[in-house]
Each structure stands twice: as C-alpha cells, then as structure tokens.
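As a warm-up, study this chain.
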Amino acid sequence: MKLAFSTLGVPGLPIPDVLRLATAHGYHGVELRAHPEEPVHPGLGPAERAGVADGFRAAGVEVLGIAGYARVAAPGDDEPVIDEIRALTALARDLGAPHVRVSPGGADGQDPAEADAVAAGRLGTAAEYAADLGVRVLLETHDSHRTGAAATRVLGRVGHRQVGALWDVMQTWLGGEQPQETYAALAPYLGYVRVKDIASAEDTTPLALGAGVLPLSECVEVLSRHGWDGWLCWEYEKRWYDAAEPLTGLLDTGREHLARLLNESA
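Now compare it with the structure written out below.
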C-alpha cells in the first residue's frame, strides 16, 4: 500500500511547501483539499493548473485525489451539484489526479430512499463525464451515509466503474460498523482509505496515528488479508480544530506507525 496525507492537515500551505513535506517525510502522494481558501480549487486557470501538475511531477509525488465538497444526496436541483462535480473532475484531470471525493450530504429528516435515489441519479450522470476524463468519483462514507452498508445502497444503484467509494475509517467506526463489515460492503467499489485517530466518539480532535481509539490495526489487517494494495491517506483535520497539534511534527511518526501496521499484517 502507498501512503499519502491530506492538505486538510496543513490548511492554506503553498504547494511547494506541501511537496517538501511529502518528500522529506516519505509520503508517496497528497490528497488536495479543493476549496477557495486553499492554493488548489476549481477556479484555477490553465497556467496555474499546469504549474501545480509540473511541481508534483518534478517532486516525484502523486496527486492522489481532489477532495471536493459536492453533496450528492442533498435536496434541491440536480444541475448545480452535477456542475460542481464536473468542475472537480476537470481539475483532477488537469492535475493528473485519478480520484475526486464527494460527500453524501443528505439532509436531516430526508427520506433515506429518496436520498439514495437522488445521489445515485447525480452520480450516474457525473460518471459519464468522469469517464471521458479518466477520473473516478468516490463517494465518501460520511454524514447521511456514514457506513459502508449505507454507501453501497447508492453505489449499487449507480453501477458504473467510474463511481466508487472512499472509506473514512473514523466515520464507519462512529456508525458502529466493524472494519471487516465495511470492507465486505465496499470491496467492489473501493478507491482508497482515509485513516486518522481520535480520543473518543465524543472528542474527535485529531491525534497522532496510534494515539487514539480508532481500529487502524484491524483496518490494515483486513485490507492486507484480502490483498488490497491501494492508498492509505492520513486525513488530519487541523482545519477544523485550531488547538490540534500541527501535522508537520507528526508526519514521521505517522508514516512509521502505518509502516509498522503494514509489516505486522503482512
């Protein structure tokens, strides 16, 4: 498995500095948070996109994915959501990223069957555009569809190879799902896995990997047992937790912890 980290852990950091962190600390790739407050977002022009792509190539670091904020199950008109996904997939194509992250984003009180149908319809439409660009759209296990079982209710209806799943280990754990259950549900769709650690269900402030309660060892073990050889991406949510320790001082120990888990599961 290859290792990456998300720029959610280093909010606003210029891309050259992100690349220096990746190379200095032994990470193979980076997931780029796509938001106007970040250096990379769909508003970038062609020259800026080319500059980012060139920087990654020169550093020998891969752009694992573009983490967007499209909410595919949210109530409302379809076209703005589909347009948002199209913009994200075009950005991913220009940067050489194979994946785009989207969220479910269903509303409180929304009928689950309706949310599933809305999400599946939008993802099915977006899939055709993504296929033309060689990009895969990944539905994250999150919010209204927190577990693997919930995500597959949508993914099974889409039935397109360019739409898959992003397994967020914290979210499925909070949803009460065991790693082997999540893997069994998501295996046909799995794009990559987001790892992280927290103190408890009540305190989700990000911690160093291995310092909290999330079942990272079990997740790596089940992935290894089934021969999965994709990406583990550390999403350290510094952007949402000002008091959290800076990610820069944790990258070495985080990589070492994941390497140890991989060795133990081999």
